[in-house]
Design a protein that fits this description.
- It is elongated, with a radius of gyration of 36 Å.
- The longest helix is centred in the N-terminal third of the chain and has 40 residues, at 2-41.
- The protein has seven helices and no strands.
- It has helices spanning 2-41, 48-79, 88-113, 118-148, 153-169, 183-208, 212-238.
- With 239 residues, it is an all-alpha fold.
């Protein structure tokens, strides 16, 4: 009788020990699993997290550039509203100055917020230096023409009729760059359209003016804009 009782107690004790072992191993395995998960929660330096931060920075730069571009183009178009002077030549020069000033401002903005492409960076600096010099030349020429008192209201009306169409056609330069993925892309796309506007203006005044100095500067503007546009397109294709 006692012998059977002892067997019964041993059996209960074995069951209790087995249950304790099961609980112990369950807790041990669970703790290791949680520790392993915790180590995976922090991504390595080369993880996609790094790229996300970089992309966010790029997006911020593009957004900032596009914001400045909108302001620059808006101010340019406002300043290019022609107050008839009686001379197509004067109208051309007076409106070309804010156009060139916008080229300078857009290039400066690119160098601050972009400037990652070496060739484009060099070209932007060339545009700034060249256009600042040409702005001063145009201001001097304006003074000379004003002294000459050259007026021709009929020719001016014909020039302004085409000029206003050019301005209207370029009212939405900024819309063409809204989908740009980088400052470089936004700068090039905007400047190509901007340069085409100057080339159209130069080509138009050549049709309505025989003034030697005006024709010389218009021809130079036309050639310069085309040359710079070609360079930007080549850079864009190599990006």
């Amino acid at each position: 009788m006692n012998k059977h009782k002892n067997y019964h107690m041993y059996g209960i004790l074995a069951i209790v020990i087995l249950i304790l072992l099961i609980i112990f191993f369950s807790l041990y395995i669970g703790r290791n699993t949680n520790g392993s998960s915790a180590s995976k929660a922090s991504p390595p330096a080369s993880s996609p997290g790094t790229d996300i931060i970089k992309d966010a920075g790029d997006d911020a730069e593009v957004t900032a550039y596009l914001g400045e571009q909108d302001t620059i183009i808006s101010d340019m178009l406002e300043n290019m509203r022609v107050k008839q002077s009686g001379s197509a030549e004067l109208d051309f020069l007076i409106s070309m100055i804010p156009h060139y000033e916008a080229s300078v401002d857009l290039s400066k903005s690119y160098l601050i917020l972009g400037g990652k492409n070496k060739k484009l960076k060099e070209l932007a600096r060339e545009i700034i230096d060249k256009h600042l010099e040409e702005i001063e030349n145009m201001r001097e020429l304006i003074k000379e023409i004003q002294k000459q008192d050259i007026t021709d209201s009929e020719k001016e009306k014909k020039y302004l009729k085409v000029y206003n169409k050019i301005i209207y056609a370029h009212q939405h330069i900024s819309d063409e760059t809204d989908a740009s993925s980088s400052v470089e892309e936004a700068y090039i796309e905007g400047m190509v359209i901007h340069h085409q506007m100057a080339a159209d203006m130069a080509e138009t005044i050549l049709k309505y003016s025989s003034h030697r100095e005006i024709c010389n500067i218009a021809e130079e503007i036309f050639e310069t804009q085309k040359e710079e546009t070609t360079k930007m397109e080549e850079i864009f294709n190599d990006m």
